[in-house]
């Protein structure tokens, strides 16, 4: 994942807010990065621009060597569906779909074959092989977030973004979710970028990026990540 001089300004004129003031960074495939910083420092905006959910005002985002925002809206949406996974704080599962239907949905949206066996295999791997036909409301928060992770993994995305993915979870569920994200990185070579306020969650990452006032003010390697996990 590579960002080159990404600026994001919301609004215009007197109401303009510079959320990102020129961020450049390069994260290698197969790394797990936590993003920390005070409220309003631009963490969510960084994630949304990097994930193609928002367009930067200036600058470029490259995923796997391809400029994501090079084409129009349709191309951006397709790119996102093919190569990006996203996990939210509040899970964002579709309440009327079963666990299995939630997980196969990204394959449908990407125009791929709906590979039920693949979805079931990933749900087994996140420990939910016996909950396929349940509705999200019948699951605990930790289980719902594991469904959301399975949904993010089903297309084998190059990069998975998490916006406070453990923010609504108890300690034990948070640890399970972090272990799954680490597994995606270390077993499958995926790249994970996670915004978090929780130092315990950040300690699972290989490095921690610090933002303040829309700029990167530090990027520290975490030599003990393996031991924490
Ligand atoms: P963080 O995630 O670190 O709390 P954000 O990326 O949410 O920071 O916000 C960075 C700045 O951009 C803040 O000043 C915020 O108020 C502003 N901002 C974020 N989203 C919007 C928006 N949709 N419209 C206007 N301003 C926004
Ligand atoms: P393909 O994209 O050709 O299916 P992958 O290497 O992505 O090949 O996947 C190989 C197998 O591993 C698949 O059966 C898939 O279900 C599983 N898999 C891939 N990525 C993950 C992941 N991050 N977590 C769990 N299972 C995964």
TrEMBL record:
GO terms for cellular component: membrane protein complex; plasma membrane. InterPro entries: AAA+_ATPase (IPR003593), ABC_transporter-like_ATP-bd (IPR003439), ABC_transporter-like_CS (IPR017871), ABC_transpr_LolD-like (IPR015854), MacB-like_ATP-bd (IPR017911), P-loop_NTPase (IPR027417). Residues 1-229 form the ABC transporter domain. One of its GO terms (molecular function) is ATP binding. CDD domains: ABC_MJ0796_LolCDE_FtsE. Keywords: ATP-binding, Nucleotide-binding, Transport. Pfam families: ABC_tran. This is Putative ABC transport system ATP-binding protein.
